[in-house]
Model the fold of this input.
Amino acid sequence: MLTRVSLALAALLATTANAQNSTPKPAALTVQAVPPVPAELAAKTRPYMELRSASFAGWNARDRSMLIRTRFGNVPQLHRVAAPMMDRQQITFEPEPVGGSWAPSGDVLVTQMDRGGAEFFQLYRLDGGQMTLLTDGKSRNSLGAWSKDGKLLAYSSTRRNGTDSDLYVMDPRDPKTDRLVAEVKGGGWGIAAFAPGTAKALVLNYQQVTNSDPYLLDLATRQLTPLGDLKKDIAYGGAEFAPDGSLWVLSDENSDVQRLGRMDTVTGKFTPVANAGRWDIDSFDISDDGRSIAYFTNEAGISRLYLLDTASGASRQVTSLPVGVAGGIEWSPWGELGFTFNSAQGTADAWSLNPQTGKLTRWTQSETGGLDFSRNPSAQLIEVKSFDGERVSGFLYRPDPAKFPGKRPVVVDIHGGPEGQERPGFMGRDNYLINELGIAIFLPNVRGSTGFGKRFVSLDNGPFKREDSVKDIGAFLTALKADPAIDAGRMAVTGGSYGGYMCYASAIRYAADFKGALCNVAISNFVTFLESTQSYRRDLRRVEYGDERIPAQRAKLEEISPLRRIGEIKAPMFVVQGANDPRVPKSEADQVVAALNARPGAAPTWYMVGENEGHGFGKKENQDYLFWSTLQFWQQTLLRDLPTTTAAAR
Done:
């Protein structure tokens, strides 16, 4: 008969053995109840851990090279590519992720970097591998537009009071030229474009996804002149001056979607020139000679590329672009178009287009860990009617039925924002769930998502409509349960940020359906969230969720907060949080984990905190460990005791 001492010794020996056969946990991760990661699991998934991607970040006018952002170490850095498919030459070497852009003149590169995911970004000039600080090192600073001659860079900064995003310009070659050009109130301000000659600039003040106010700024007098009627809710998705001084913008004025057109810089009148019917035009760029505008449309999540002749107003589609998702478009001075493109069959890479011939040229081919994703099936569009008749849609990624016959588990992965949008792109590491574990993944676009017009994106505004988006999940669950290839008894939910709130709320409302929930950087109580999120963004979030200072709204925000009903969740829970998150503070996770662990008879909640992370994990070693832990969580909640008829393929 074993004594208590021998039992304790056996447990200690087992723990030691497990630790010896496990993958080391990164030092910056603290965990509660999360089991060690078996070394076997890390080895089995290794190819999926080595996936890379590359995003187009601009052209260098002097040597015709391309600037890209990719990761070879722990975090993404900037690289130079001299010509298509040539080596990626790393030019920044920092411990944190780095972004940035070349001046249009090509002689100076300005970078942007924060520390530990806190999003208090600083601006730097890159000098021979060294980054020279241009800002104060304390406030939050965000890159704005370059002047066409490359002599001025605009940026916004909270340095005055920590809350308001005042507007500044500088010549980054000489930091002493830094000057304040507009003192403002609010956190959504930015200089979107300089007019030719740099005496004036177009300023946008983002209020919410359906409303951003335009102003013309006189840089000498610091006078902001409103353009048009600011009392109207009009969203501007981008702005740029042509060489002739005409101002082109994306606007949903008198429309449900974003159209491309000209704005009069005196009256603010918008004249649409190009539209995509029921779909948004989501980005554009004007050629250096002003004769052509390239723009992307978002058609049911798929990117289409068009070229507009500014003289005639006629557009033509570039039919050589494959089905996928693209963005970051920019003309080079010599007339080539650069952009980022990805699809279900391939990770994001940098490409260019010759607009005269329509020829696409691939500049980078990122590593896939030796895996062939070319046979990945495209996402299936699922459309359903919700509780009130509103049509909502999403994308379903199915495992190969030949490899995984029978009914399969499904993870419902809800996007953040809440104004985000799921689009049919590359699934990254989640391809392991689909291709190796036979787990289907469903990506819903509930009401409040962008890409479907301003009416749809406004359907969840404020506290009194907020739960309607949660009810949309119920409509999707009904459709998934009716699918003969989906196992209705093996469904789970996950999401991050606002999707994290949706994760908690869905696990409560559909407690009988979901067997597990993984909620990342999630809002657990709207009142405590609004009171503790960083001050520079608080008013922006109040417009979307509600104002906790108004008694009726505060009461409703408390009522719909998951923390109030967290005891109704019976399924296992996995909570993930960055300690330095400026958007959803760690306190939101701490309070919900405490409440979850207080549930009578419930299994301990898994809790993982990235001490050097912010709003989501950005460092590869942390991302890897989280993914391995996630696989263990899905193994316990979705794959345990799977019938042998379907488990054999594993």
